[in-house]
Recover the amino acids of this structure.
């Protein structure tokens, strides 16, 4: 049994059952409604994964650069973009070390990208790099789980059934560094593969402080992509900031 990183080849993230085209369209609809972007604006997608947000933005005429440190994600994103008939600029790069070659009008960092933990530590430095990549007045949209509701509702185990395989998930919260470890065992008739994901959880106050320390002004915070005001019970934080 191998133990590849969660975002390596064969990752369950590549066939995540919740990441439907309808969900992607709704998320981008909401994000764009919050931002004052000119036609053809340049957008940076940090932690683009398999490219779903980048591709939807490109469909709408935006010039998109999608970055992700995982080769398997970039390969999947390029294949999906070719199938969709659009051409975002996908690059294998980490958000915390990314250096822009041109200013961006906006950046997005969605679906628990901020807070990912690797052998090098967490990726919170990406907030500084995004600030440096944006033009003055540029927007930054961040989506992360909110710590207290996430911990309260954390399911220790899960099983996702498929036609030829199933995935067992084990989760554990570590109070000492506000992190969660998720272990995914993907079981098929041929083999069992293990993928491990670690990420830090933020409170609203911690996320706002992180953005402000980098120089951002926080404009709004929501509990979901419907525009629900952020409350103590909101499991998700969707924050709009501006350079």
């Amino acid at each position: 049994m191998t133990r590849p990183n969660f975002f390596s080849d064969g990752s369950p993230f590549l066939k995540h059952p919740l990441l439907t085209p309808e969900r992607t369209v709704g998320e981008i609809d909401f994000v764009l409604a919050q931002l004052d972007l000119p036609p053809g604006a340049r957008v940076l997608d940090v932690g683009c994964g398999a490219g779903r947000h980048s591709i939807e933005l490109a469909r709408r005429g935006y010039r998109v650069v999608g970055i992700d440190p995982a080769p398997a994600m970039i390969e999947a994103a390029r294949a999906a973009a070719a199938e969709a008939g659009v051409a975002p600029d996908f690059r294998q790069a980490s958000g915390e070390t990314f250096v822009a070659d041109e200013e961006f009008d906006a950046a997005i960092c969605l679906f628990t990208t901020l807070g990912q933990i690797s052998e090098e530590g967490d990726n919170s430095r990406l907030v500084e790099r995004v600030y440096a990549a944006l033009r003055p007045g540029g927007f930054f949209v961040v989506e992360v789980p909110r710590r207290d509701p996430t911990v309260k509702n954390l399911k220790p185990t899960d099983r996702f059934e498929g036609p030829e395989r199933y995935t067992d998930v084990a989760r554990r919260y570590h109070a000492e560094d506000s992190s969660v470890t998720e272990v995914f065992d993907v079981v098929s008739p041929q083999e069992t593969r293990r993928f491990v994901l670690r990420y830090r959880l933020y409170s609203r106050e911690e996320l706002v402080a992180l953005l402000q320390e980098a120089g951002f002004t926080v404009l709004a915070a929501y509990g979901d992509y419907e525009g629900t005001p952020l409350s103590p019970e909101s499991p998700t934080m969707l924050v709009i900031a501006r350079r």
Remarks:
- The chain has a mean pLDDT of 93.
- Residues 149-197 form one domain.
- The chain has two domains: 12-148+201-242, 149-197.
- The first strand starts at residue 42 and ends at 46.
